[in-house]
Amino acid sequence: MQALVIVAHGSHLNPASSTPTYAHADTIRESGAFDEVREAFWKEEPSFRDALRTVESEEVFVVPLFISEGYFTEEVIPRELRLDEWDPDLWESDGTSASQATLYAEDVDKTIHYCGPVGTHDAMSDVIVKRAESVTEDPDVGEGFGLSVVGHGTERNENSAKAIEYHADRIRDMGRFDEVKALYMDEEPEVDDVTDYFESEDVVVVPLFVADGYHTQEDIPEDMGLTDDYRTGWDTPAAVDGHRIWYAGAVGTEDFMADVILERAAEAGADIRDALEKVREATGGVPASGD
Amino acid sequence: MPATDADLAPDQFEDLVDAVTGGPVEFDGLVVQYEDDGYVFEVPDLHREHLSVEELERVAAANAEWVSNWHFWNVVVGGEGTARRAFLRWLEAADEHSVRGRYDAMADGGIHHEWGELLVTVELGEVGYRRYELRHVDDADAGRGTLTAHTEPRNLRDLSKYDDSGRYRPLKTAPSLVDGWVLSDLTSGELKEALGFVYPATVENWHREQEGTLDVTHWRETAERQTGIYGVVEELPREAVEWVTEAACVDSQCLKRREWQYDEDDHLETPGGDGPFPCREPCSLVVAAARKWTKLEEEDEHTYEFDLTPSEKEQLEAIVDAVADGRTEGIREADVYEGANRYRARYLRAKRFDDDGNLCGVPTEE
Ligand code: SF4
């Protein structure tokens, strides 16, 4: 038997934080790819500490629903899952290339395939583009448009910016958008000045966050000047300094993310048979361009 | 017992014959095996031997509950040694009562257990399959038709996310589960899934406790493990940990039975609670709150002087009590006899607070 455990941050305050995790888990459950699918959270239950004992399978694929490699994926999650032999070097990653490490969890006597975060998977570039398509309601969006990928910035984790840049570079290389730029909340170039960084009149802004919450629904819209008060909402597109800003919600809420989670597990050796196809049908997905 | 409950489906008998081919079947009082000259079939008060397969089928059909019981536990449930199996066995007290006694009880209104605020009922379905029902304990006596029916375990995940007044429940085992719903006709797998959504990992940790393998992590070890912004909780004084458990872990706030202590040999005085499932280490909510308390406990005490009437002092105490016990919503609009009544509080504020919100005009010293 094999199980999939999706580990995510969760929240004590924001009920919407876990929503994408459950939604993607449901999609994968329905595909029948795994004997068991379970969600676990840093701030909700089951906790990371109790997560592995909630599945019966002896082989467990753990996929972090996190954006970047760093504090959570390299330190907190392995520690809380009690993966005693864990060492970040096992991922042999340059900051965005972690795939998986096979470990043993003693408290539950199981083999654990600890995967890299979904956020750095190549297929995430496609999810970001998909987000741009949904917010503009244009499946061919690109020409005449700028695209900004927005992230936290380095705050306690230098790889956070690496992940944002990685996808911005990849999307730029697709040659689909006139301009592509990585912007940050807490460092230069800042998302506050989004219009300074683009010549295109139309700019799609996609926050590389797992769930919608304070940052994506309050901070960023106000910082960019889409609205003075997030509670009153904003227009899509919104006129800011002679530009039209198309602001998409958190990338993690895109249905497509279920594909990325499955890809991570498959690359770690999960036998998912024809489930990937089923999930792609359910999420309206396209095969990942990256591999 | 209704005839259908006692029936045996052909595939159940085939499964039994298959199993016996691999060796003797011995389960819950049923013994079936093959000896040189035929099958042996045994249940309490009955021993038959030298049976042909046709004879075995007739005897099995006449004693269907023993065979369907074997089938349910070994073909449907399986999972020898798992928490799931142990929990399902416990639900029908399978290790204490005979098959016949259990079948009678399950057919006659079902067997009930409380699991936190959930009432779990196991009933007898067709050909010995069990059917499970979940509802709120407060709805124990409600007719099924008066409750909102749900069919998917997943529905419970959404239902348990908010309390009665629509507020998010960050602690799944807080005693604030909404009532008024029912999930019936669940298979054993669906029951386990539903419990996993409402009270995650409780069945697994209960099972470990039953087996004597519950891995409790006490406060000290938990605090020392923390890093990042939670690293400070290690400095929370011993006596404050006592107050933390009184604030968050008692039964009125959390239905898990706290098994963790300050340290292995240094027990806390706060009662751990009486619930069926254990709490094996401080949860993330408690650690996050402890971080705030650690910072607050770093402040020095000051002596302030306030002039209050005796009733005003008591009123402040009444307000703290009402907030701490979550009673403010229940205080009636015009009940000015309650210190925590809104008009009473507004009056006190108008009288005793200055424009900066300082009690009796006394500034807060840093
Ligand atoms: S630490 Fe306290 S509040 Fe948290 S789950 Fe355990 S008993 Fe409940």
From TrEMBL, chain A:
<keyword id="KW-0456">Lyase</keyword>
<dbReference type="Pfam" id="PF01903">
    <property type="entry name" value="CbiX"/>
</dbReference>
<dbReference type="GO" id="GO:0046872">
    <property type="term" value="F:metal ion binding"/>
</dbReference>
<keyword id="KW-0169">Cobalamin biosynthesis</keyword>
<protein>
    <submittedName>
        <fullName>Sirohydrochlorin cobaltochelatase</fullName>
    </submittedName>
</protein>
<keyword id="KW-0479">Metal-binding</keyword>
<dbReference type="InterPro" id="IPR002762">
    <property type="entry name" value="CbiX-like"/>
</dbReference>
<keyword id="KW-0170">Cobalt</keyword>
<dbReference type="InterPro" id="IPR050963">
    <property type="entry name" value="Sirohydro_Cobaltochel/CbiX"/>
</dbReference>
<dbReference type="GO" id="GO:0009236">
    <property type="term" value="P:cobalamin biosynthetic process"/>
</dbReference>
<dbReference type="GO" id="GO:0016829">
    <property type="term" value="F:lyase activity"/>
</dbReference>
UniProtKB/TrEMBL annotation, chain B:
<dbReference type="InterPro" id="IPR055772">
    <property type="entry name" value="DUF7348"/>
</dbReference>
<dbReference type="InterPro" id="IPR041346">
    <property type="entry name" value="DR2241_Fer4"/>
</dbReference>
<feature type="domain" description="DUF7348">
    <location>
        <begin position="10"/>
        <end position="78"/>
    </location>
</feature>
<dbReference type="Pfam" id="PF18069">
    <property type="entry name" value="DR2241"/>
</dbReference>
<dbReference type="Pfam" id="PF24039">
    <property type="entry name" value="DUF7348"/>
</dbReference>
<protein>
    <submittedName>
        <fullName>Uncharacterized protein</fullName>
    </submittedName>
</protein>
<dbReference type="InterPro" id="IPR041181">
    <property type="entry name" value="DR2241_middle"/>
</dbReference>
<feature type="domain" description="DR2241 4Fe-4S iron-sulfur cluster binding">
    <location>
        <begin position="212"/>
        <end position="292"/>
    </location>
</feature>
<feature type="domain" description="DR2241 stabilising">
    <location>
        <begin position="100"/>
        <end position="210"/>
    </location>
</feature>
<dbReference type="Pfam" id="PF18009">
    <property type="entry name" value="Fer4_23"/>
</dbReference>
